[in-house]
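fyi for ur records
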Amino acid sequence: MTSAAPSQVHTRLRVFLAAAHHLSFTRAGEELHITTGAVSQQIKLLEDWLGQRLFRRLPRRIELTDAGNRLLAAVDPAYAAVDLAIGRLRGGALSGVVRLRALPSFLATWLVPRLPGLMRQFPQIDLQVEAEDSAHSLRDGEFDLAIDLNDGAYPGFQSTVLLEEEIFPVCSPLLLHGRPPLDTPEALRHYPLLHDMTAWRGSQPYAEWERYLKAIGAPMVEVRRGYMFNRNHITMQCAIAGMGIAIARRTLITDELDSGRLIAPFRQTVPTGKRYCLVYSAGALADPRVASVHDWIAGEARGADGESRLAPPARPEANA
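which gave:
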């Protein structure tokens, strides 16, 4: 067992937590703004110091070992308590405005239900929130932080990856009544379709449906038909109302699936290659108010990302 100074151990534990939350050395490096190699090295040093393996290195992923799970169960709540205490101490000295720009659907569905937690932790920060869809360019000086869905490349800005996005079809169970069984993608021709015309920056109006069907290798199905909307959450509300089948984003749809208001008729989910990112100008995080909001949102995303991997989207029994 190698020796290590307390500060080194704490640094390695922070790296371990990021890797354990993401189950990815690459994603942990993105969160911590270090390279994947540096994450791997810090984990190895921690494992050598403990004398136990914390991760299984598989060909295309990593898994926690039993020792890793025990360490996570002990360290995670301890560091969460420390972060909360520090946040409250910093929050007491923070006051003023932070301008946050966010995609309307992400704002309404994901962020707004979580904002009371930000208010409790930083009561003296006045958050000014602007809902703006991805058709509008990001321009320096118009925001302190922006939440955007794109491929993660933002020339002239810095960014922090929040969540990867996957898509899959959903509909109200009422829509299936009196129609042919929706047991294969080919059956979509018997159903009305709903579209988000601004799915991500630069996307075409039918991009989500076309990407999904191409990715699962479905035979040609005509999808350039049906109703179109420029907000994902409005498209989902129309799906709940039984108007048609829509493409859902896993990040934004959990409650509707859990409640049974929507079902996912097919098993396959498809990565879009797009990421929700926090975007900001170089030097923006030097402002403790902006840094506090940034870190809080990133922390909420880490928790949500872990929860989203626990179960696949709900599916109707008859079509499973």
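Confidence is low (pLDDT under 50) at residues 314-320. thats all i got for now
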